[in-house]
TrEMBL record:
CDD domains: PRTases_typeI
Protein known as: Hypoxanthine phosphoribosyltransferase
Pathway: Purine metabolism; GMP biosynthesis via salvage pathway; GMP from guanine: step 1/1; Purine metabolism; IMP biosynthesis via salvage pathway; IMP from hypoxanthine: step 1/1
GO molecular function, one term: guanine phosphoribosyltransferase activity
Domain of life, per lineage: Bacteria
Entry cofactors: Mg(2+)
A Pfam family reported for this protein in Swiss-Prot or TrEMBL: Pribosyltran
EC id: 2.4.2.8
UniProt KW keywords: Cytoplasm, Glycosyltransferase, Magnesium, Metal-binding, Nucleotide-binding, Purine salvage, Transferase
Length: 179
């Protein structure tokens, strides 16, 4: 285990098994819909990789980069689009792939934007959910695991752009971001 990690919450095996399970449900729900799997960069990269390889239906993979965190551990509520989609979502079924839902600001903004652009439907699949952190109403339809209100890293999740490469989700030691 990495020295900055206090506790491992989910191992690679646990996350991959959960992703496969969610992918099978998406396969059923989107069998004839040719959905767009829309990964939010950069945190969703490992999880979208796990999901897509278990979805044996026609699916388009796209990415967007939005940001509500500015190097810290709390959400600012201001969501900026850093990289937009380069394909039309009009009349398309969109499955947003997220690493974690906390306040809900990020998804609230992205969902509103996609609907404004004429998406036929918008749902969310998230690896992790921190329901205690919620500020706006946001209920992802597909959730991997619920976690308590701790700051976690790994499996795509970062602190100041590091730790995304850890092959598990773990709680970061407080002293790492306190000093
Ligand atoms: P909101 O608050 O908009 O947050 O729902 C969603 C985004 O915030 C980041 N986030 C975290 N990143 N560890 C992280 O590394 C965490 O515990 C955490 N909580 C929220 C994440 O980028 C997510 O997309
Ligand atoms: Mg994110």
């Amino acid at each position: 285990m990495h020295n900055d990690i206090k506790e491992i919450l989910f191992t690679t095996e646990q996350i991959e098994a959960k992703a496969a399970e969610l992918a099978k449900q998406l396969e059923i729900d989107y069998a004839d819909k040719k959905p767009i799997l829309l990964g939010l960069l950069k945190g969703s990269i490992p999880f979208i990789g796990d999901l897509m390889k278990h979805m044996n239906i026609p699916v388009q993979i796209e990415f967007m980069d939005v940001s509500s965190y500015h190097g810290g551990t709390t959400s600012s509520g201001q969501v900026k689009i850093l990289k937009d989609l380069d394909t039309s979502v009009e009349n398309r079924h969109i499955i947003i792939v997220e690493d974690i839902v906390d306040t809900g600001f990020t998804l609230d903004k992205v969902i509103a934007l996609l609907k404004h652009r004429g998406a036929a439907s918008v749902e969310v699949v998230t690896m992790l959910d921190k329901p205690e952190g919620r500020v706006v109403v946001m209920e992802p339809k597909y959730i991997g695991f619920n976690i308590p209100k701790a700051f976690v890293v790994g499996y795509g999740l970062d602190y100041d752009e590091y730790y995304r490469n850890l092959p598990y989700v773990g709680i970061l030691k407080e002293e790492v971001y306190m000093n």
